Amino acid sequence: MPPPRTRGTALRHRLAELRGPDVPAKALDARALAALAANPGCKRRAILDGAGVNKAVLADALGSPSSFGQSQFAFMRGNAFEARVKADGGAELLRLVHEKLDPGAEPPTRARVPELEAIGPEGRAARTALALREATEATAWTLLDHPMLALDVAGSPAFLEPDAVVVHPDGSWTVVEIKSFPMLDGSADPAKVGAAARQSAVYVLALEEVAAKLDPAPRVRHRILLVCPKDFSNLPTASAVDIRKQRAVTGRQLDRLTRIEDIADTLPEGTCFAPDRPAAELTAAVESVPAAYAPECLAACELAFHCRDHSRTSGAVTTLGRSLRAELGDLTTVDEVLSAAHGKSGDPDDPTVAALRRAAELRAEALENAAALRDAAAPRGQAPGSAAGLPMEALGSATGGGAR
After folding, report:
1. What is the DSSP letter of 172?
2. Are 111 and 90 in contact (CB under 8 A)?
3. Residue 381 confidence (pLDDT)
4. Minimal CA–CA distance to 62: which of 46, 44, 35?
5. 3-class DSSP assignment, residue 220
6. Is residue 126 within 8 Å of 164, Cβ to Cβ?
7. In degrees rounded to 5, what are phi and psi of residue 122?
8. Pairing mode of beta strands 236-242, 223-229
9. How far apart are CA 267 and CA 77, in angstroms?
10. Helix (H, G, I), strand (E, B) or coil at 231
11. Do residues 81 and 226 lie in contact, with contact meaning Cβ atoms separated by under 8 Å?
């Protein structure tokens, strides 16, 4: 008899069925995890990422291809810069770590660079954990080049590969993030630095899980080293980035994610996201999982165009942004908002409904005043309602502002 299926193997089998029997799984990286943590209410992304579905291929099959992703040129440039930073056994990288994060320690004249190769992601993660333990006990500078870390996400393991992890002589651990965008006069694009900080926060959370299994637990530093090209050259420079805020937010959001098996249990029997399925069947499978679209998804998810089209079709107010959605309370569609504003539905004692109705009254009053001004200013013989000859400042004062 075959051995009884455990809960973990049953989940993996179920996720493989959702992905498609002949479709290889796409690894879940830190960038995807950071985007998932930024939108924890999206069950669609959670189940697709958990099942290892390639969302870019899925978007093409749905007829909504996405332009999201890194260009091949940027990818090659980033690899070339990373190779330069790590040349000579990571001498320049360790010099930057010593200078920016640990100037009181002994200078890294020579560092240990352990071999981390193993079979499969599970094997590499185990080899990384062993190398981290050995490096902590060695009390010497150690560079782990592309280690493999495991992080539990909604009940499913995710394997992450930071650019580097440095172990200090005091046994503490630092995440190193290498990016190809420039650092001009000591500062870089705040949006790109923020994205790198959120990505690094995921690595720090994974490192903390490894550290918690050691006795005593090493300290995982909450200041990471961001390495970028200096000005417009290819020379590396670095800055220490405090990610305590990003780590706290990301950890809290990941904890809020609905467990993968709970989402899978709600799907219809036979649901499959394999891109070779008929378009109608594939669309039905995707739509069977609730999504939480917001304009921010356009910069973080390959399915954003597909979700935006369906969000607009259904009239969801999230299409207009999360901040507006938060202000509208229980009103989740544009039709509900307009109905409440025009007094056709909604509790008048509800502050949101009352504010909408007051706004509708002000708008109607402004339009009436504007129409009266147009009729009064129209030349003799011109049809009423024409704006010819009406100064723009008159229209602006009638509507409460300038031309829009």
Report:
1. -
2. yes
3. 57
4. 44
5. strand
6. no
7. -65, -40
8. antiparallel
9. 42
10. coil
11. no
